[in-house]
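quick one, two chains, predict together pls
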Amino acid sequence: MITNHQTYNHDVLVIGSGGAGLRAAIEASAAGVSVAVICRSLLGKAHTVMAEGGVAAALANVDDRDNWKVHFADTMRGGQYLNNWRMAELHAKEAPARVRELEAWGAVFDRTNDGRILQRNFGGHKYPRLAHVGDRTGLEMIRTLQDYAIHQNIDVFQEFTIISLLKEGDRIVGAFGYDREKGLFKVFQAKAVIIATGGMGRIYKISSNSWDCTGSGISLAYHAGAELIDMEFVQFHPTGMVWPPSVRGLLITEGVRGEGGVLRNSQGRRFMFDEIPELYKGQTSTDEEEGWRYTQGDKNAKRPPELLTRDHVARCIIREIKEGRGSPHGGVFLDIAWIKEKISNAPEHIKRKLPSMYHQFKELAGVDITKEPMEVGPTTHYIMGGVRVDADTQMTSIPGLFAAGECAAGLHGANRLGGNSLSDLLVFGQRAGEYAARYAKETNAGKINPDQLKEISAWALAPFERGISSAGENPFQIQTDLQEEMQKLVGIVRTEIELTEALRKIKDFSVRADKASCNGNRGYNPGWHTALELKHMITVAEAIARAARERKESRGGHFREDFQQKSEAFGNANICLQKGEDGAMAVRQIPKVNIREDLREIITEMK
Amino acid sequence: MSKVIFNIWRTNASGDGEFQEYKTEITEGMVVLDAVHQIQAEHANDLAVRWNCKAGKCGSCSAEINGHPKLMCMTRMSDMPEGKPVTLQPMKAFPVIKDLVTDVSVNFAIKKRIKKFKPRPPDAPDGTWRMDQGDIDRIQEFRKCIECFLCQDVCHVLREHHLHEKFAGPRHMVYVAALEMHPLDVEDRTEDLKNEDGIGFCNITKCCTSVCPEGIHITDNAIIPLKERVADKFYDPLMKFFRIFSK
């Protein structure tokens, strides 16, 4: 007997039950291996549920000029060519099949007039490409995957948290965690482990993310020795709510702009026309009327500048606010109500196309978006970086450990296009499931080291030992302080001085986290959970700050006030982080792999 | 703004519960869940509350606020009666795990036993289907469900009579309706509706509809049409007559 903890045995263990995790589990199970899925919350509540605008796939249902090559070129351009081109290729090629498959599993996307899946415009996508269901596409996707998965012989563990991966030598052999209800430790023995834990928005104060987006999977992989890349690239979505304070950061879908919504400053000016980046000059309209026609499906019109990539739009909004042309609560105005000048049944149209936006503003801000503009500002939304994986198999640098979805890196490069995350999690969730199952079939079960379990459980129980004594600290307070500092020092606009300051503070947080304490017992105890979660949040915060300090240029989601231009040298390298033998975070640059010739030609052709 | 008193149901060491009073500062725009988080951070680190998105999209933070089943994240403090304490309790129809958190696992078990989606063969050679938007409008309403289980909580068949074993409840009626009215689905669930799911237990008081945060017309659009299907199949004498002869 290796332990007195309850132990479960599976071929493939999937950590995370959002889109990527469920899709991976479905695929692995279909390959005939035994599969467990760990849900940190209840099944079907993961952050995927909040995705709004749609899933990008070159189905060409609305514009028959679309195909995988255009989608590939758009994704690479959006990522400022730092993307892993093989991932971008696989993604563009396989996304249509993954979306159609959802329909076969019961998803009900909005329809075109001839009964096919409808697609809408989104920033950085040349043609209308996002399959959607109003503005609740994520809910439709997770529910479809959930309702399909429950019939696939997958063991689902709801409200379980993994606190460490388990290794034998170099390879992965399982994971260790607790059930939330009772707080009892559990061992999950597995031949292959897939990390699909999503993003890290909760380490910032202003975020569109769910509570469980703490970057835990990225941190789990890092502490197990896996490489992280592109961590400096955090996407700040241009349009989050800014008022009232309690909902600050809550997402407003890009779909609002896709449907014709425009951004204005306090002078009523559509400021997005003021600066159009070189890469997009050819495809962006300089005429308001033409921009409107584009949103209404005119194939000959160019897109309005509101639909430029998210990194650019977010920076333009920041500029307006900084230069004193912001809205009363420190944002700018996003106006969809204006379309009543163009169409007769505008209020009904808006409510049908953007029902949750209507609902959200009505309920939480007392604003009727069919009548008045919304106040919006940037919000932490997504991390392009994450665990470094092999493009085809999604295996990390640790044998048997896979990663898929937001916690994995490569597809999006320096900036992600809207809609590409939902397709990412389908395409690479499927691949991770397939290859993890294959790996598990070729591998024997490893041995779990009881000493490792002892060590982790002692660490995990330490907050109770400390109790609320003079030495202990309130974990919620440490979390809040971390969020404040990250927002202030590692936000949209960064400098060497602030990043160095951030790293110093993160070190302090790490010391404080070692003193985090909790009271009460182990059953469903948020104080305890938060105390343990701090380790992940601090690890990811450090990774972002270190990578951001290393990249001395501005590109995509990473903007350095002290290095405002792109640099060719940095354009040819990804920043990689790995835990050194001394336990410190080591930073290095890894040169980009030369792009395959046929793919390079596609990019040139589409420029 | 001002301090507000909260009476929150706390589970005690013996497994029972009692109300505990907390006072916290309320500022503009706060929702009930914000207040709970504040209390948790300031006074009660171990106060159990289930939540994820704080945006009315995940359906995790269901509770009873002053006796009304609601999402805590979508209930604004400014809508609470002024100068009065706010009472927070876990959902009554489910066993309490701790404090405001209940065991809703029965819902996952019920869903699993409902026959899954079974599509007709694809309409086009490329493996895709054609559906008219007009034909899917009604099931898109059902698919808005965020599985907060407030409808299950308020349904008197479950809440007062605890018939979880005999009546699947409003959430699952909506789920079955979404499958049965799916233009591609070819499965027949009417017999299960009558027997296993116990649709007859619903006497259309519409309590479920009144608490649905997504505004789904549960009774009118889902349950009544399903009841009609069951009635047509099993209780319509004319249909029965036809069935005998068509066998």
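Chain A has three domains: 6-235+381-441, 244-380, 450-589.
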